[in-house]
Design a protein that fits this description.
- By secondary structure, this protein is α/β, with parallel strands linked by helices.
- It is built from 15 helices and eleven strands.
- Helices cover 38% and strands 12% of the residues.
- It has an eleven-stranded mixed β-sheet with strand order 1-3-2-4-6-5-10-11-9-7-8, with helices on both faces.
- The longest helix is centred in the last third of the chain and has 22 residues.
- The chain starts with 7 loop residues before the first helix and ends in an 11-residue tail after the last helix.
- The structure holds glutamine (GLN).
- The site of glutamine (GLN) has 13 residues, from loops.
Length: 490
């Protein structure tokens, strides 16, 4: 077996037992990157030299019997909107070209500084995390490792592609309306979006603050549980992070699930969900039943309003958040300095934001303007409460809710790029989770007739990451397809 075929937790054991060195593992990732990056374009910047220096240092410390942190030098791919000190962090936008943050994000401190993971580079994404395909990046798209004519999903497409192809062992992403779960589903890997407030957003470049959450993309459920244990908890630098006990998520995975009640919302299997996807997901539900879980029907009656509600809220928040990019405080300024200061600001923004980001700023500014605020923004907030209440109601009768993660498998590059509405509709099964602020995980549950992976979503009640990880782990072991490495071919 090649090193890249092992799970993160297995590699930790190998390093601990001195079967392999940290440097060997890191180099094997860079060999894989060398082989596949030309076809995938998962990364936008590498930190190869620094990574190698750190690997050598960790190996030396290990030899001398020093503690090197619980992640034992596992190579980590970071989404290009989570700040790494002195390393270019651009949100895949021209406007942040050359920006190097003066500090580390909370999650980077925990994973890299405290627990010894090695940052190997930043991954490609839709500009400012706005998208579902990673085609909206100023660096060009990432390609799906299962079929390079298809999109990897978005917006954390580079992170998902790097894990699916074996370029990296652990990855970070962010999820505002599905940006971890969509690419993890399209690339056949595990994507976890924690409860809003479970993980500090300090050092995450904001897209829509009331929805954004940092999470993980990994090869298996165990690795996600391991990362979540490390990155969860209260951070005084993020006032929305919650001071709630962090469970030992890895310890809860083995529990039998025969006492669990699992809800299947009929609305999540409605119009627009591909038949093949539905069939593969339904088969996985029977597996859960086989493991002893009780399957019941539940309802999320306001599901049909979620896409409209989500887009109104995220665009409103984005238009306000992105006001800070004027070329003066961050990033590049227009070379044409004619006119007054406002002319220069608006020219800078016009030249350096991509079309999707501009569209959202326009629409968000519109919905927040006097006269339209009540009609759109306030109304969306009210519907958000209804959606949240739907989930609260449903969780009175079940421990978790399951559904397809995405209504389809990965589509072709270019297929929807000129049809933003179609692209937005693909978020229908993921964005309700962000509107409610609850946790969800996606795991691969099979393949369609084109051999593209199908994602299975498990949604939990507030702060019940332990519960959904447990169900995900049991199902993963039962299905036993998670070890497949994507071939990186057409
Ligand atoms: N596809 C969604 C959007 O474009 C989700 C983005 C995200 O979660 N960052 O807004």
């Amino acid at each position: 077996m090649k090193l890249l075929e092992y799970m993160g937790y297995e590699l930790i054991e190998k390093i601990k037992n001195k079967d392999i060195s940290v440097q060997e593992l890191l180099e094997s990732c860079f060999v894989r990157i060398e082989e596949t990056e030309g076809s995938l374009h998962s990364f936008v910047n590498f930190s190869k030299e620094k990574a190698l220096d750190k690997a050598k240092l960790l190996d030396k410390d290990l030899k001398n019997g020093k503690k090197i942190g619980g992640l034992y030098g596992l190579p980590l791919a970071n989404k290009d909107l989570i700040c790494v000190k002195d390393f270019p962090t651009t949100c895949c936008s021209k406007i942040l070209k050359g920006y190097r943050p003066p500090y580390n994000a909370f999650v980077i401190e925990r994973l890299i500084e405290d627990q010894g993971a090695i940052h190997i580079g930043n991954t490609n994404m839709d500009e400012f995390a706005m998208g579902t395909s990673t085609e909206n990046s100023c660096y060009g798209p990432t390609y799906n490792p299962w079929d390079i004519t298809r999109v990897p999903g978005g917006s954390s497409g580079g992170s998902a592609a790097s894990i699916a192809s074996g370029q990296a062992i652990l990855a970070l992403g962010s999820d505002t309306g599905g940006s971890i779960r969509c690419p993890a589903s399209f690339c056949g890997k595990v994507g976890l979006k924690p409860t809003y407030g479970r993980v500090s957003r300090y050092g995450l470049v904001a897209f829509a603050n009331s929805l954004d959450q940092i999470g993980t993309i990994t090869k298996c459920v165990y690795d996600s549980a391991l990362m979540l244990e490390i990155i969860s908890g209260k951070d005084p630098l993020d006032s929305t992070s919650v001071d709630k006990k962090v469970e030992k998520y890895t310890k809860g995975l083995d529990k039998p699930i025969n006492k669990k009640v699992i809800g299947v919302p009929k609305e999540f299997f409605g119009e627009g969900v591909n038949k093949e996807v539905e069939n593969v997901v339904k088969k996985a539900i029977t597996k859960l039943e086989g493991l002893g879980a009780k399957i019941i029907s539940v309802s999320i009656p306001h599901l049909e309003y979620t896409v409209a509600t989500y887009y109104l809220i995220c665009m409103s928040e984005a238009s306000s958040n992105l006001a800070r990019y004027d070329g003066l405080r961050y990033g590049i300024m227009s070379k044409n300095l004619s006119g007054d200061v406002y002319d220069v600001f608006s020219r800078t923004r016009d030249e350096n934001f991509g079309p999707e980001v501009r569209r959202r700023i326009f629409l968000g500014t519109y919905t927040l303007s006097a006269g339209y605020y009540d009609m759109f923004y306030i109304k969306a907030l009210k519907v958000r409460t209804l959606i949240k209440n739907d989930f609260i109601e449903a969780f009175k009768n079940c421990d978790a809710i399951v559904s397809p993660t995405m209504p389809s498998t990965a589509f072709k590059i270019g297929e929807f790029i000129n049809d933003p509405l179609q692209m937005y509709l693909a978020d229908i099964l993921t964005c309700p989770v962000n509107l409610a602020g609850i946790p969800a995980i996606t795991i691969p549950c099979g393949f369609n007739s084109n051999n593209m992976p199908v994602g299975f979503q498990i949604i939990g009640d507030y702060f019940d990451e332990e519960g959904i990880l447990n169900i995900a782990y049991q199902l993963e072991q039962e299905l036993n397809i998670y070890r497949k490495i994507a071939p990186v071919t057409k």
